[in-house]
Backbone:
């Protein structure tokens, strides 16, 4: 026998609350560290790119492209693609690994942002970018932890996934898109 419905409801709520607290802690820690360590704009790494800004812009653009894969695969898994009835079995694997790759691409970008630049609040575009970047990692933390919570209402994971997608799109549009379209020159 399973748990009574009221007990299951209480457990997922507490688990989701704990995941949210962890996400807030991650976002807050990133923001606090970036603010306390203003950075000196020193180039830490460029990988194979000529400058750190190009590296950050192109890796973030790669992550944004994988966001499209994430979004389409999630819509397929939830049966929300027009004209598609059931997603093939490989779509879940595509969703998972495109997410891993997108997250991996964000790590050197975030490292360079937090360590070399710090938390900036001027101009407004940069403030939005700084806040959204911290919130992205917090929301990602909540979503990853929520994947393991049993009994969640069906709408929770798509909402969390949508929040992660929206935040990364905001981070990308206030940095990489701006830079690659001539804002950084």
Residues:
């Amino acid at each position: 026998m399973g748990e009574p419905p009221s007990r299951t409801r209480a457990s997922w709520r507490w688990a989701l609350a704990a995941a949210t607290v962890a996400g807030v802690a991650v976002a807050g820690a990133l923001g606090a560290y970036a603010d306390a360590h203003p950075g000196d704009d020193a180039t830490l790494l460029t990988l194979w790119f000529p400058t750190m800004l190009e590296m950050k812009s192109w890796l973030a653009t790669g992550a944004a492209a994988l966001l499209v894969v994430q979004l389409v695969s999630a819509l397929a898994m939830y049966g929300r693609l027009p004209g598609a009835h059931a997603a093939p079995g490989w779509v879940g694997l595509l969703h998972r690994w495109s997410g891993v790759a997108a997250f991996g691409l964000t790590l050197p970008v975030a490292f360079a942002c937090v360590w070399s630049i710090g938390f900036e609040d001027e101009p407004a575009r940069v403030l939005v970018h700084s806040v959204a970047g911290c919130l992205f990692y917090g929301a990602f933390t909540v979503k990853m932890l929520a994947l393991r919570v049993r009994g969640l209402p069906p709408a929770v994971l798509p909402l969390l996934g949508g929040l992660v997608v929206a935040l990364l799109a905001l981070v990308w549009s206030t940095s990489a898109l701006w830079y690659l379209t001539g804002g950084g020159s």
In short: The helical segments are 5-36, 52-77, 90-117, 124-146, 156-173, 176-183. The chain has a mean pLDDT of 92. The two ends are 64 Å apart (CA to CA).
